[in-house]
Specification:
The structure is a homodimer. Chain A is mainly alpha-helical and about 325 residues long. Chain A folds into three domains: about 10-140, MgtE N-terminal domain-like (MgtE N-terminal fold, Alpha Horseshoe); about 150-255, CBS-domain (Roll), CATH 3.10.580.10; about 270-310, no CATH class. Chain A is built from 19 helices and six strands. The first copy, chain A, has helices at about 10-20, 25-35, 40-45, 50-60, 60-70, 75-80, 85-95, 100-105, 110-120, 125-135, 140-145, 155-165, 190-195, 205, 220-230, 250-270, 280-290, 290-310, 310-315, and strands spanning about 150, 175-180, 185-190, 215, 235-240, 245-250. In chain A, strands 1-2-3 form a three-stranded mixed sheet. Chain A is globular and about 100 Å long. Chains A and B meet through helix 12, helix 13, strand 4, helix 15 and helix 16 of A and helix 12, helix 13, strand 4, helix 15 and helix 16 of B.
Chain lengths: ~325, ~325
Amino acid sequence: MEPIKQFELSKEYLESLRLGIEGEDIDFIRESLDGVNVADIAALLDELSMQESIYVLRLLEKQFSADILIELDEDTLVKVLPELEIPEVASWIELMDSDDGADILSLFGEREREEVIAEIQDRVKLEQILELLRYEEDTAGGIMAKEFIRANKNWNVIQTINEIRRQAENVEKIYSIYVVNNRQQLLGRVSLKKIILAASETRIEDIYDEEVISVPVHMDQEEVASVMRKYDLESVPVVNAKNKLVGRITVDDILDVVQEEADEDIQAMAGVSADIEESDSVFTISKARLPWLLIGVIGGLMGAKIIGFFEDGLSKY
Amino acid sequence: MEPIKQFELSKEYLESLRLGIEGEDIDFIRESLDGVNVADIAALLDELSMQESIYVLRLLEKQFSADILIELDEDTLVKVLPELEIPEVASWIELMDSDDGADILSLFGEREREEVIAEIQDRVKLEQILELLRYEEDTAGGIMAKEFIRANKNWNVIQTINEIRRQAENVEKIYSIYVVNNRQQLLGRVSLKKIILAASETRIEDIYDEEVISVPVHMDQEEVASVMRKYDLESVPVVNAKNKLVGRITVDDILDVVQEEADEDIQAMAGVSADIEESDSVFTISKARLPWLLIGVIGGLMGAKIIGFFEDGLSKY
């Protein structure tokens, strides 16, 4: 028995998938990917050619493809996206969380982005995405999602559960339910556990926790990460200047931020100015290391200069 | 209105707290810390002297003090712990999650650790902590906690909610409920959201999700971090070689792991071999940078050697 249930990305499977794509063996492709985690399929598509990836994405169920798209490497995404049909991209974006939809849209040029936006039918989702696109990429507003459960303090447990039921499809991971007043201002939070354990007539007002840590929409993402780390939060509500609840950030997005920032710091210390990967060409890698190489050259020249300076002295020996 | 509701650690407050401690103004200390987040109080105690910290910890409600103790800097902890009474430490450890209790115990020398263990009254907690102490510090087993909710696949929703109720005090954050068979082997997971939305007679067997990612107890913590990051998990179950569920790791602990590993990498790249902080002495910092300084000295010597090598040639000019 294999204790860690991860999909094994073997060379053999990759080869048989390639053959399946070549032979247009739709049943084999669908069946062999059924039930596999989207992160694993994305890692698989990162290995395939752009045409092969698009072939697979178009074969799978729409929601499944949308979930895989989000998990793709940015390098793969910028190759795949321009090759897709505009209405196709729009329909996938409709199935994503607003923050992921905004991320995908931000990878398009201005003209294509407008074309995709024009094709998005879900008006609520579109409004949410357009709001998110207005915020700076590296701030709380830029990484938050618009999908979360909010409860009015005057509701009871039954009304709140109905709201959860209504939003069940949109909000995959709930963590906390945020409590607001009639003006949508953040008052506190109530955990799902408390909702489960309370009697159905209990009013939210009587069980919610006023001690909630929130972050302002303009806060830098690194600072958001340090707040979430300090207070051990799995999600944090985002508020505007009037304390109105505008979004929430979940810890899985923050884990990516911490890793990215750490990678940047490490590359900066290694004298590498740009983001490079093993797969980049020698030219790209050399260019990224240019500052470091230049320092070497300057050092060499200065050494020669100094020796030249002592030429007279040296020639006496 | 202040959007981010964090406790502001001002010099003025610190000063008034110091005066309160000096004047033994118990009411002032208790009232001014009432409702403040434990992470903020820990940051405050890190600024105080060891005696002052202990004075404050002893004044507060026991559970509150135990929660604060966990959040203290390791530097502060190793100063504070030896000054506490053995029964006092034991009673605080009883109120902690097993992983935190094990962390605290591992900071004691062998003799003191045995003394504390002998004082722990809660036999269940003690057994859990002793099990955790057996695992390597940097592995899944070393960072997991024994507190989580498990449901037998034959239970229905009501029985599961009763289990949650029974464990409500022990398990602060639930995330997922892990589903096991009669031999305690991990079969899958069911989310709290699904429990809320299901009818009370629904059997767990019919609603649980078989696609659960688990990690083996001996897996390195860095690998656990990358699994949780890849699959966007907020908690991951830990299993032994027989797929028996033995613990779970939550993402707040993993966030600390990612940050620690990144800091280590950055320090390694900067040529610093040991963990240094701003507060360390010049001697400690210099010692940590020794590898780097040595390379400089060797480089200088080699340069002199090379010039010596060309001495004859140079002397011709």
